[in-house]
Amino acid sequence: MLVTAIALFFSTFSTPILSAALTFGLFVVGHFSGDLRNFQDVVDSPAAARLARGLYWVLPNLAQFDVKDSVVHGRPVPMAYLGLSVGYAALYIAMLLVVSMFIFSRRDFK
Question: Which parts of 12-78 fold into alpha helices (H)?
Fold first, then answer.
């Protein structure tokens, strides 16, 4: 549902092909957002570290929805973790839909 909300957001202001490409790009970046959090350990530039930290807080963290490691090894996924993940997704989806509605309402179809 989160990826669908991202695709809907991009489709409000871009072409279908660009929307698909941007959605795919954000999908890939969302799975590696944990690397953005640790980017300051790799670079010497404080500006690049601040930019990466800002992107970490703005971009969706899709890696938290990946529970296959626990499932494959037979460990139960805690309900608190599932609750936080669902809450995070609901807030992010709501934010994307509100911004999408605002952008779409201001479009001129003439």
Answer: 16-31, 33-37, 46-58, 68-72
User: Encoding tokens for residue 79?
Assistant: 């309900």
Cα separation, 8 vs 12, in Å, equals 6
Extract the tokens encoding 18.
């660009």
Q: Report the Cα–Cα distance between both ends of the chain, in Å, rounded.
A: 31
φ/ψ (deg, to 5) at 43: -105, 160
Residues 6 or more apart whose Cβ sits within 8 Å of residue 17: none
pLDDT tens digit sequence for 35-91: 888 888 888 888 988 988 898 889 999 988 988 888 899 899 899 999 999 999 999
Sign, CA dihedral 49-51-57-60, equals: negative
